[in-house]
Amino acid sequence: MKSSMKPLIVSALALLICVPAAFAQTPEASILPVTEPLDVGGTILQPGTYMIRVVPSPTDRNKVQIMNQDGTKVFATVLTVPHPLEPDEEVPNTTFVYYPAGEGMPRALRTWFAPDPHASGGGHDIVYDEKRARQLARLANSNVVYYPGETVVAEIDTDAELSVVTPQATVVTFVPPPPPAPVVVETQSMASATESQVEMPATASRTPLFALLGLISLAGAVAFRMARSQ
User: Fold this and answer.
1) Long-range contacts for 173-181 (Cβ within 8 Å, ≥24 apart)?
2) In this structure, what are the phi and psi dihedrals at residue 19, rounded to the nearest 5 degrees?
3) What single-letter DSSP state applies at residue 164?
4) Which residues contact 95 (CB under 8 A, 6 or more apart)?
5) Helices and strands, counts by H and E, the chain
6) CB–CB of 77/154 below 8 Å?
7) What is the phi-psi region of residue 119: left when phi exceeds 0, alpha when psi lies from -120 to 50, beta otherwise?
8) Backbone φ/ψ region at 116: left (φ over 0), alpha (ψ -120 to 50), beta
9) CB of 37 closer than 8 Å to CB of 106
10) Which listed residue, of 68, 85, 112, 214, carries a Cα 20 to 30 Å from 123's Cα?
11) pLDDT class for 222, splitting at 50, 70, 90?
């Protein structure tokens, strides 16, 4: 009887390991089509189809990777800063916003809006080195965030001090935008709450739930077999 219980116990342990992984956050990702040379954080991408995604991390959402479509090769790791959505700001029809190209220079990626930017708190503004940021500030007539020269982006701490250059070449310290304001939900009485059901957005997969239900069923089967064997 003990030998027949072993596969069930092993399966239960395996499911216990898989359930937390299923609940882990899926990184934001988009397909990045490139039809002409494109500067992304200092890396020049040649025409082709790429994938851009947030580097998987439970604490750091400010680095993105440029990869091939199947995710087997990383072309660049890029530093970003949050682009919070203003209350009246609409996400552009395209998921990418670009700086204009200068004479003899490729255009550069300015902001990436991942799928469902309202859920992720906004977009990702690409950070450049100081020299390139000064060029882009003049071309776009807007402020550009930059990191110190000779910086290895893949190793930089995203809490490191960044700077902002203005179109007039003035430099100020970058101040991170505040996090998105929490959604305020009005309190309802028990009677009114039962009368009106609020439909929540479907932002998560049901796979973890099915896995959890399967784990519960499996645990019940194990307990039942153990009770019968006594």
Assistant:
1) 174/81, 174/145, 176/81, 176/82, 177/81, 177/82, 177/84, 178/84, 179/84, 179/121, 180/84, 180/85, 180/121, 180/122
2) -65, -45
3) E
4) 30, 112, 113, 114, 115
5) 5, 13
6) yes
7) alpha
8) left
9) yes
10) 68
11) low
Domain range summary for the chain, segments of one domain joined by +: 23-173
Torsion sign (Cα): 97, 200, 26, 58: positive
Which carries the bigger pLDDT value, residue 23 or residue 217?
Answer: 217
Per DSSP, the three-state class of 67 is: strand
> What is the chain's length?
230
187 token code pair = 């309190």
User: The whole model's pTM is what?
Assistant: 0.65
**Rounded CA separation 76/229 (Å):** 58
pLDDT band with cut points at 50, 70 and 90 for residue 225: low
